[in-house]
Amino acid sequence: MSSSSLSLPSASMKPLEKEENNGAVEAKTNEETLVCKICQTVVILKNMTTEWLNEERELPLPRQKKGIDHTQTEPVRGYFGVKDIFAFENVGFTRSSEGKRFLVCGECEQGPVGYVDPETEMNYVTPERLDVLQASQDGKN
């Protein structure tokens, strides 16, 4: 894991400070390019999201323990919303045994890094399961 895996991207910290918006959707874009924590593949470029969902959802753990007969989950708060799947650079979709669709890294399939809302078909990606692309990595700065 990279050393930045324990901290959330700064763009996602701003909405989390607004406790009165608990569970609210607000118009917001990601201010940084988000990459996979494992392989550093770009998942979504900066300014490609359209909203911020300040809500806690259960996501399956990236690594499941053997010998358990159910999917282990953890609560994850805060998701950037993306309506058009073509806004992503590298993302894959999976299905769980419960019929839910989750987002994973399109290169190494690590995740889930988000989920698909079955009612709205909106794609939600969490910066908690991703890293920020560092200026030295993108070759442009």
From TrEMBL:
* Entry keyword Cell wall biogenesis/degradation: no
**GO cellular component entries:** cytosol; membrane
Q: Which keywords label this protein?
A: Guanine-nucleotide releasing factor, Protein transport, Transport
Give the start-end ranges of region Disordered.
1-25
Q: Name one Pfam family in it.
A: Mss4
Q: Where is the composition biased (Low complexity)?
A: 1-12
Top-rank taxon:
Eukaryota
GO biological process: what's one of them? post-Golgi vesicle-mediated transport
> InterPro entries under this entry?
Mss4, Mss4-like_sf, Mss4/transl-control_tumour
Any one GO molecular-function label of the UniProt entry:
guanyl-nucleotide exchange factor activity
What is the protein's name according to its record?
Guanine nucleotide exchange factor MSS4 homolog
